[in-house]
């Protein structure tokens, strides 16, 4: 128990304060890393937390710090903690908190705030804002602590809310006066709460398991879809056993890649279109039928009638887009274990006709792609550059892969195979830009493994200043910026002929590598796949912060990759 070392001479009692109670509550619950940006009113808190043995990583922008905390929660199953100043800093962190909630990552955003009595009367305090009211609609839960004796309970409630059931983001509001509140040290110690069994197992109903197995038995062309929820669950061996016992082809969503290796004989990643269209029974494990799966209907799913089995901890997820004929509600580890037990040793595997057809299509597509990945063009195209990075990940399966962009994301998730679980982290459910540098920092800190980031030039721009943070903490991060001079491509022109460039075009010939050099890291300009391969291998071997400016043909790429249909098209412009 850390305490303020001054003594009240009248009572001779040891005292503590809000600063130290928050620190002690975090440490008591194993939350030993904070991602944030210092400033009023939390500057001294960061200093004190570091002095008490908490790792405090200071960022250049709260949004990046929040993204780091969100992915830390995903990787560890403990809430990642982001610390921000009031009002504008809180708002910057709020984007990441909403991102964490949408993606089901456990995270706690802790923000200092103005005093309630001033906020409620709108008297114009420094950075005055009713932060709790603003946060509530965008996170799983929100709490405010007004009294030092309630700090332990407040943090305990935040932890439970973040990790129990479907995980998500939680906001904890700490008004400035709370930090300086003083109380008896022994009473303060007793007020702290060590959270026990924050995310208890949720056992599925036996009837739901029997129903799911009955539907699966009736399938002629079954498919398993693994989502990032299955990866988060860390029930890796059970999921592997279910897939292999059933003999069913599986399709991993992008952050579930590596739960079983992408090179596994049952992996249907390279035959995605075929298995979605032709399957008759689809089992979803920790995956949602959202836009990433075309909502479970439409052209992507073909004309074959479908029956869906869904395993999810959230009952309200069922029937969100299409009828779920066999909902299985519970935590993924318990549900998969129950399914395996129900299968027994006599389970009949998926038919050889179906699995053979999937394998044939997958192998055809892989063979068709192979020559594209082996070119050594200069300037590079996406396939030549990603072919090199695919090989590097194959040789370094323990490395963490961070990926964001438009074409850079869309193509990389299909080309770069993963071999181990939770090694690929990307934009997730919202498909947002800007997660890259925060993810890199948290991945390096939380796993201790080298990190390779594959970034589009547009995506990198959202958080690029955090390369200074990477250099400051000397993290083993290699960033590859796919630089094609613009968003989607760098060849668009202003149709008016005016002096302004097109909205999607950046400065021609930009040298992002020089940014890293400016902060003492290694910067490399790579113009061919061979140069890219040498530079990445050197970076991964050295562990030094490195940024490689990968020069991509400005004409390479298309609008939004395979999600271009999400950009509305003007009927009028087509008529011109």
Q: Quick gist of this model?
A:
By secondary structure, the chain is of the alpha/beta class.
| Main sheet record | 6 strands, parallel
In total, the number of domains comes to 3
Strand content: 15-25%
The beta-strand count equals 20
CATH homologous superfamily grouping of the largest domain = Thiamin diphosphate (ThDP)-binding fold, Pyr/PP domains
Any overview of this molecule?
It is a single chain. This protein is of the alpha/beta class and 576 residues long. It folds into three domains: 4-191, Rossmann fold (3-Layer(aba) Sandwich), CATH 3.40.50.970; 206-362, Rossmann fold (3-Layer(aba) Sandwich), CATH 3.40.50; 375-564, Rossmann fold, CATH 3.40.50. The protein has 23 helices and 20 strands. Residues 3-10 have low confidence and may be disordered.
Descriptive tags:
six-stranded parallel sheet; 3 domains; 576 residues; alpha/beta; Rossmann fold; disordered N terminus
